[in-house]
Amino acid sequence: MPTMPLPNVTTADQLLVLRDPPWRHELWRGELRRMTPAGHDHGDLGARLLARLFVFLEKRRLGRVYNADTGFLLARHPDTVLAPDVSFVRAERVPTSGCPGYFTGAPDLAVEVMSPTDTRRRVAVKAQLFLEHGSSEVWVVDPERMTVTVFGRTAEPLLLRRGDTLTGHGPLKGFRLALDKLFDG
């Protein structure tokens, strides 16, 4: 089956109205990138993390957690709109009224679940983009290796493996998730 060419989209406004099912898209410095639909493991791990963060945040009213459909406008000219698999925004940054477009700015936490088509290099670049534009942390979940790499603004990336516990910092202080529970269900 021939590959369809990418639409000519270079701005966040164009991306917002783009219809190209079943694909999801991101805009990297004015370059449109098509993403394949998530596979089973990818979707399952993303949902597990979203659910755990939601329960933790809902009780404490610390902010909002968003799914992979949420785009974050990180930069203009050229435009960059990225959509992490799971994200968290502190309560004081959540818009008080409707927000019909993309969230302006980076989430406080971005979570990326690696898919079979991702490269570690590409995901690390994406993590760095989130950090450069204001995210405090980025968690990269690797279903194949059963690891989570925690990227922060100041420290070297921290690699967590089965047997380790993923812990939140800053407004997520007190959040804990054993990687065995994440990967085993």
Which descriptors apply to this entry?
185 residues, alpha+beta, tt1808, chain A, 3-stranded mixed beta sheet, 4 helices, globular
Q: Would you identify the CATH architecture?
A: Alpha-Beta Complex
The ordered H/E elements are: HEEHEEEEEEHEEEEEH
Q: Quick one: how many beta strands?
A: 13
The end-to-end span amounts to: 36 Å
Coarse structural class: alpha+beta
| pLDDT averaged over residues | 91
CATH topology: tt1808, chain A
Helix content: 10-25%
Q: What gross morphology would you assign? A: globular
Largest sheet: 6 strands, mixed
Notes on the structure:
By secondary structure, this protein is of the alpha+beta class. The chain has one domain: tt1808, chain A (Alpha-Beta Complex), CATH 3.90.1570.10. 24% of the residues lie in helices and 30% in strands. It has four helices and 13 strands. The strands form four sheets. Strands 3-6-8-9-10-11 form a six-stranded mixed beta sheet, with helices on both faces. Strands 5-4-7 form a three-stranded mixed beta sheet, with helices on one face. Strands 1-2 form a two-stranded antiparallel ribbon. The longest helix is centred in the N-terminal third of the chain and has 21 residues. The relative contact order is 0.14.
